[in-house]
Design brief:
The protein is mostly helical and 387 residues long. It has helices spanning 3-22, 28-34, 44-67, 69-88, 93-121, 124-138, 140-155, 161-179, 192-204, 206-236, 243-264, 270-294, 300-326, 333-358, 364-381. Helix 1 crosses helix 6, helix 9 packs across helix 14 (333-358) and helix 10 packs antiparallel against helix 13 (300-326).
Length: 387
């Protein structure tokens, strides 16, 4: 598979979950109104997708090691597309969340396959470089998706958002059917003993275990931002229809960080980049915590001055920690990708939900979360850098 085709396929498969989440962000107010929900219930529209993604990865990772990346990706995309359409016809919020969960389940298959394909093709610094390039393309999704969602809402209604996503989903099924060459070289027998052995092997590896924890804590911060972004910008900062622009600016900062990281990994060890970026994140967060505690200023400019450098640094962290975590597991890339992805998301969700429930318009809890998670990450990975 050519470099362009592999990057396009991996980025597209990885983007399905984000596409389902980010296009719906401008519609959260309308969804709350449509189902007559209390304000603090709205985050479940986002959180339930990530729960589905985490379970989907654990389910489909071992399946991809047995039946191949191609078949698993197609199955995941079909599940994703079918339940996208089903969500349009929901009559209550509970069934809507069931559909969102299965969207996440299908997206879990595409996410786990995307990482497994990357590990099938590349190793070491080349793997880290590929993941950074993929992350750069992948980040275009949250840059443009809220604007696409807002455009659909302005011209049609929020119920048409799943229809547009499904069209892209089925187009990708056609592309995989026509052009994708299977990358799995050695198939494993699908049985519970092999799956259990694979899970144990991931957690027995100090590198995989520690960097999976780091990925989970970092991802928790990113999902927390997703959960609070709409009420923060639209309800408290009053940006109205310009919300997609501010959200996209943050996503662009992550993408720029990933692009810079793709160049840096050729000359600097990924572990060292991660350690330095986490130290800089910690310093920047402490400075703004003092500012918000003593000044209390709450305007868009100040918020963006804090967010943009933080997200840039996250762009240099997240792709690296995932590449480092899976790097020792090339012989069980599908299962390992599933375990790492599921563990990452399950660790992140309680963190994100906690911040969403107690969000009241101030950034202090979010900044404290960034400080705590980065402090823990530095402790977890400190000895790894020396190895």
């Amino acid at each position: 598979m050519s470099g362009f085709k592999s990057i396009f396929l991996i980025a597209s498969l990885m983007a399905m979950g984000a596409l389902s989440v980010d296009t719906m962000l401008p519609a959260l107010l309308m969804i709350k109104s449509h189902f007559d929900l209390p304000s603090f219930y709205g985050h479940w529209t986002i959180t339930i997708v990530f729960l589905g993604i985490s379970i989907g990865q654990l389910l489909f990772g071992p399946i991809s090691d047995t039946f191949g990346r191609r078949n698993t990706a197609i199955a995941g995309l079909l599940i994703f597309g079918i339940f996208n359409i089903a969500s349009i016809f929901t009559i209550n919020y509970q069934f809507f969340l069931v559909c969102r969960f299965f969207q996440g389940l299908g997206a879990g298959a595409t996410v786990v396959v995307s990482r497994a394909i990357a590990r099938d093709i590349y190793t070491g610094h080349e793997l880290a470089k590929l993941m950074s390039l993929v992350s750069t393309i992948f980040i275009l999704v949250p840059i443009f998706s809220p604007s696409i969602g807002q455009l659909i809402i302005n011209t049609l209604s929020w119920q048409f958002i799943p229809i547009i996503i499904t069209l892209f989903c089925f187009s990708l099924v056609c592309w995989i059917t026509l052009f994708h060459v299977e990358t799995l070289k050695h198939r494993r027998v699908l049985d519970f003993s092999n799956i259990f052995k694979g899970i144990l092997e991931v957690f027995h590896s100090k590198i995989s275990r520690n960097y999976t924890l780091t990925a989970g804590l970092t991802f928790g911060v990113l999902i927390s931002f997703l959960n609070i972004s709409q009420p923060l910008f639209q309800e408290y900062l009053g940006v109205g229809k310009y919300f997609p622009l501010y959200f996209g600016a943050g996503a662009l900062a992550i993408g720029f960080g990933s692009l810079i990281n793709a160049q840096l990994v050729s000359i600097i060890a990924p572990k060292k980049i991660v350690q330095t970026s986490m130290q800089l994140t910690l310093i920047w967060s402490f400075l703004f915590l003092l500012f918000f505690l003593f000044d209390g200023t709450r305007d868009v400019k100040t918020v963006m001055i804090f967010f943009l450098p933080i997200f840039f640094l996250f762009g240099t962290i997240f792709g690296n920690v995932n590449a480092i975590a899976i790097s020792p597991m090339g012989h069980i890339a599908g299962t390992a990708s599933a375990v790492i992805g599921t563990s990452t998301t399950l660790l992140a969700l309680p963190i994100a939900s906690l911040v969403a429930i107690f969000f009241s318009g101030t950034l202090v809890p979010f900044i404290c979360l960034v400080i705590v998670t980065n402090s823990l990450n530095l402790l977890i990975t400190r000895k790894m850098v020396l190895n």
